[in-house]
Write a structure and sequence with these properties.
Elements (H helix, E strand, L loop, with lengths): L3 H11 L5 H12 L1 H4 L4 H8 L3 H10 L5 H15 L2 H13 L5 H14 L1 H4 L2 H13 L3 E4 L5 H13 L4 E4 L5 H6 L7 E6 L5 H13 L2 E6 L3 H4 L5 E4 L12 H17 L1 H18 L11
Helix pairs in contact: 2-5, 4-5, 10-15, 11-15, 15-16
Amino acid sequence: MEELNDFRRRIEKHFPRLTKSEQKIGSFLLSSYDQAVFLSAADIARELDVSEATIVRFARTIGYDSFPQLRRALQHIYRARTTPATRLQHKLADLKTGEGHILAKVVDMELQYLAEVPHSVSPAEFDHAVKIILKGRRVFVFGIGPARILAELVFLRLTRFGITTLRLNESGRDLLDKLLLLKSDDALLATGFHRVTGELVAVLDRARKVGCKTVLLTDTLRAHFQDKVAVTLAARRGPVSTFHSLIVPMAILNALILAVAMERPAESLGSLKRMEELRAEYGLDNLGKVNSA
């Protein structure tokens, strides 16, 4: 199968004979293959302001039978370069360059990504997500793998605000038991990054079939699931091929949680006060340990 360097050489070989529009496509695919892998020919055409026919012609010009065949080649490259080991390897190589302590470098990197959040998530998209959660009779929160931490955060906060919240953090068949509970008047907040997992597909597809409104927090999967969710919140965390933290998605979720509390302050504060009263009543102030009298 084709590797990234092979793909680059293929485009470079044909580049002088390409039209200006086709050269634009080639440059985009080389610089943003990790984004293009999730886009259709129509999506790329809109992104680059060219015709869909030009995308198809480009694929054939550089030696593919069709655009789908070109995209399959990109998908192979994407999978090969986005394993946990390769992402960590790329990040360690980046951190070795330049001067400065690793702590300062990582903090600076996170600050740069955080600064992009207001540009990747519009106020309208964010407000729409808040309304979906507020209107849900119950809120289901999906997150597996590293994203399980995000699901746990939302579950804990919303539960303490008095909102009935259920976690969807199982894998395989165990996930289906809870999916059976999902109804049209519920709300779903799903998190998924980089990989299209069977669990994510099942959760979003089930929600669509029962008529449950869905908010998807993701980085590169917007185009793949845009027809299955009500709103997508884009958590851009830098190039796909490098190691990522959860700082950006966690910041977006913290803002979402606080926005929900602001819309129902009396209920949220009342629920927190009742929890404090229960802690005092049963002496469970410290991590479940009963205080001695």
